[in-house]
Amino acid sequence: MESSLLFYLLCVWALNCPSIASVEAMEQCPERILGNERRRACPKKCLLDEECGSKRQCLCDGQCGLSCVAPGRTCPWPLPPAKHCDVALLSPSPSFSALLEVRCKSGYTMPNGLDVIIRRCQGDRQWSGDEPVCTTSQNGDRAEEPDRVPVASCSLPDYDLLSMQGSAAVGSSIKYQCESGYVLVGHSQNICHKNQTWQYPHPVCRRVFCPPPKEVDRGHLVAVHRVEYEVGNTIYYLCKKTFFLDGPNQVTCLPNGTWSAVPACRARCPVPAQRSRVIVGGEKRWPYDLTDGVVAHGENVTFFCQYPEKQCSFTATEVCVDGQLMAPSCYLDPTWLQFKLFPHRLVSEIDACDPADLQ
Ligand SMILES: *[C@@H]1O[C@H](CO)[C@@H](O)[C@H](O)[C@H]1NC(C)=O
Ligand SMILES: *[C@@H]1O[C@H](CO)[C@@H](O)[C@H](O)[C@H]1NC(C)=O
Ligand SMILES: *[C@@H]1O[C@H](CO)[C@@H](O)[C@H](O)[C@H]1NC(C)=O
């Protein structure tokens, strides 16, 4: 109910539609009527997102019809305070297609007789329609001269890239934010003094770039090499053959101009045992049966050791860390003769010690 009323008001203001019966039909994007735009410039006309490049989308932009717009861009907000009306943002942020309500104070109306209008944030980063003016309607037919003088406030900066929260009225404070991909240079908050000057100059938004990402030893970047990268760019890493990718396989250029965590390429480890079985991946195997006689980075290798003066074995586990795998100090590799002549008496083949034997 309320939203259809809003839509009708928007309709009356921005689109001049003839009757409330056609509100349903207006849900579709209107055709751009050439020469009839109240706007200085409509963005590029389109039918599909693909026509709009990477940063823009093909969206309905009021009387401009389907147009290439950057939906993240914002319209001026807050607006300088105006006399005889209250202005409220009806959307969470003043970005594309956000709605703004301008309501005349009691006893005041706009020249068209309405006391409320809705303005829409257009693709050209301006609010739809003209600056509304609320005048008193008490003098019968003769409306009072429009009073365009705003209440005392400080001037607002060029809004490109910079969005603001708060009020520019005297005694108020304001917070600034830059669009994603830009960093704010200067003060992020400001106060409007009684003499209508800001405490600090307005900040500026500087574009953020990441330097080329770090090279990774034994790996390579899957990317076209560039001098700088934009925020949000992603680059993939691959490790050279046999090396294990430790960490994410991609890095992203962060809003502060640094890259997310870079991975490492880890080497596999030769197993420091030849004539004894070891446990790898839960299986008891001869080292020469392992592919290339190596285990992956991070793999556990369990060795069999002999308990002194007893014919029983116990185990000790070591981890392969980037090419380094040491045999545990208790491990002794059997001699060639032991291996050939008494394979069943190898430490890895005899019974495990009873836990009681080990105390
Ligand atoms: C305006 O007022 C502030 C604070 O009272 C003061 O610091 C500043 O110098 C004044 N600026 C001008 C241009 O008078
Ligand atoms: C950049 O941002 C990331 C994530 O927010 C943070 O972890 C990192 O410390 C920041 N780096 C610098 C230099 O501020
Ligand atoms: C190796 O052993 C440790 C400790 O017992 C365990 O946390 C880890 O998950 C094991 N790694 C593999 C690859 O099985």
* Rg (CA only): 36 Å
Tell me the number of structural domains.
5
Number of strands: 25
Structural category is mainly beta
Ligand set: 2-acetamido-2-deoxy-beta-D-glucopyranose
Give start-end ranges of low-pLDDT stretches. Answer: 1-26, 140-149
Strand order of the largest sheet: 22-21-24-25
| Euclidean distance between termini CA atoms | 81 Å
What do these coordinates show?
The chain is mainly β and 359 residues long. The protein has five domains: 2-69, no CATH class; 70-151, Complement Module, domain 1, CATH 2.10.70.10; 153-207, Ribbon (Complement Module, domain 1); 209-266, Complement Module, domain 1; 269-358, Complement Module, domain 1, CATH 2.10.70. The chain is 8% helix and 27% strand. It is built from four helices and 25 strands. The chain has helices at residues 2-15, 23-26, 336-341, 355-358; strands at residues 57-60, 66-69, 85-89, 99-104, 108-109, 116-120, 135-136, 162-166, 173-178, 182-185, 189-191, 204-207, 209-210, 219-222, 229-230, 234-239, 244-246, 250-252, 264-266, 269-270, 278-280, 283-285, 294-295, 300-306, 313-319. A four-stranded antiparallel β-sheet has the order 22-21-24-25, with no helix packed on it. A three-stranded antiparallel β-sheet has the order 3-4-6. A hairpin with a 6-residue loop joins β24 and β25 (313-319). It is elongated, with a radius of gyration of 36 Å. The N and C termini lie far apart (81 Å). Residues 298-300, 319 line the site of one 2-acetamido-2-deoxy-beta-D-glucopyranose. Pfam families: Sushi (PF00084), Sushi_2 (PF09014), WAP (PF00095). Binds to various kinds of negatively charged substances such as heparin, phospholipids, and dextran sulfate. May prevent activation of the intrinsic blood coagulation cascade by binding to phospholipids on the surface of damaged cells. One of its GO terms (cellular component) is extracellular region. This is Beta-2-glycoprotein 1.
